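Bench notes, bay 3.
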Amino acid sequence: MASSFSSDLKLELMVTGENAGTWGDNTNNNLNLVQQAIAGYEEIGVASSDVALVMTDKTISNARNATLKLTGTLAANRTVTVPDSIEKVYNVIDGTDHAGYTLTFKTASGTGVLLCEGNCYVLYSDGTNVVKANEYRKWRTVSAAETVQAGAKLFVETNGGAVTITLPASPAVGDEVHFVDSRYTFDSAALTVGRNSSKIANASSDLVVNTEGAAFGLVYSGSNVGWTYTEK
């Protein structure tokens, strides 16, 4: 009887009496695959195209890595997919510049998770979809107009002129975005928060912030009120 392969990590499952003389090599290969699943790290460029990660029987494969760092400046909305039917945990670092576009990590047929530029994630594939278990949100500095993703934590610099930050399209309840006037210049050059078709604080208008040193967060509470303050 020939070897078979495990459903998730594609390890070789050898049958007693088969592979005479090659058990050592095959076992060592399996150990290398397990090592990749536990400790493997790989940087994946996603700037120019979508990426379909692969999990190949008994072969080192990019979808088996424990940690993936996504890199590059997005030229369009991008997706990174893992194969269906794989159950696995992934540490994902969004090291890209979104340039106003979106980046999604998903199974081939699932909806997945929208990533936020600069943030780090613990994600898991349940074989059908990719689900977010945890997100580490990192502060980053912006000084020009940008459309951001849920989870963004922004030091906004307006010392070079007014800045418009546009909120995510089609937000989900519980999505958050945070802002800080890092140069204490909102009073002379305001921050405008673009609502992107959702209400902000129950108003169907963009939010203009011209208070020096302002620091506040917005959370999406649903279509009735839209984005509302977590603190201000």
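Next record in the batch:
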Amino acid sequence: MPDPSPRRPGPRVKLTHPDRVYWPDAGVTKQGLADYYAAVWPRIEPHVASRPLALLRCPTGIDGPRFFQKHPWKGHGRAILTPADPAHPDDPPLIAVDGPAGLTALVQGAALEIHSWQSSLADLEHPDQIVMDLDPGEGVTWPAMIEAAREVRARLEAAGLAAFVKTSGGKGLHVLAPLRPARAAGWTAVKAFTARMARAMAADAPDRYVATIAKAKRPGRILVDYLRNGRNNTAVVAYGARARPGAPVSMPLAWDELGPDIGPAHFTVTNAHARIAASPDPWSDFRRAEAPLPKARTQRH
């Protein structure tokens, strides 16, 4: 897969067993995943670089054992950063990357999913984005998911925030809002803001939305999951692959693209490069759209 732009210099990372198949149904190998991330680096960089990460590692591919990794492991590559968490200096270090070699090192470590905090290493205690994860219960249609994403957008915009949408690469959609980090907008305030929004949606339309994880309450409804906005909680990064059949990726969309032709797992490691080569980045203004977290108030529209 060609790399459409110059790469940032960094340590060279050698892949061992590059032909190891990570997604048997899609025929995607370790080398194929590394090539995908090399090609997508200019777009994924703002969403993955210099942020604490959590990884889903699958050493033998999606059909084998898997485990969630929030701290470095023995033998991790030199291109993987291991910063300390200042708030917990006695805990194991965090995981981060700052260049394409870091992503290749994650691939070498069998990281088939990359999830990030909602803050950067430069300011761990003040989130620079919100993510609302819309997760469909059994029987929820795709048009209902689209309507839910548009409602989240409307509520965010009514609160003075910009809204950006992406497929989850799983079953749902993620709506993000870039924040201008501020002393008053720490984890507690951001999580409270997102909780109020989720609960307001559930209160206004209890037949469509829930704000609780309890599965018994979810059939036919959409979970508006705000819990990814807490410290040390994560969500899959934009353009990140998922350890699911078909090798789907979490793909940023323009709002006018959100329709019946693009489902939650429409874009994959194998077809995403064609989209990226043919289409401008729908999230190119993400960081320029930063706005301060609104003060507490009723979030309705």
